[in-house]
Amino acid sequence: MSSSDRQEKIKQLKINVKRKEVLSTLSGQIPVTIEDFLSIEETTRVSKKVYEIIDTITNQTELVKDYQINVNTLLHTKERTKGFQNNNVAILHRHDRDTGALVMTIESFWGNMNEILSFVGFKDGYRDLVVVDKDLQFGLCIERHEYHNNLVVW
Question: Which of 14, 15, 36, 111 sits at 20 to 30 Å (Cα–Cα) from 95?
Answer without folding.
Answer: 111
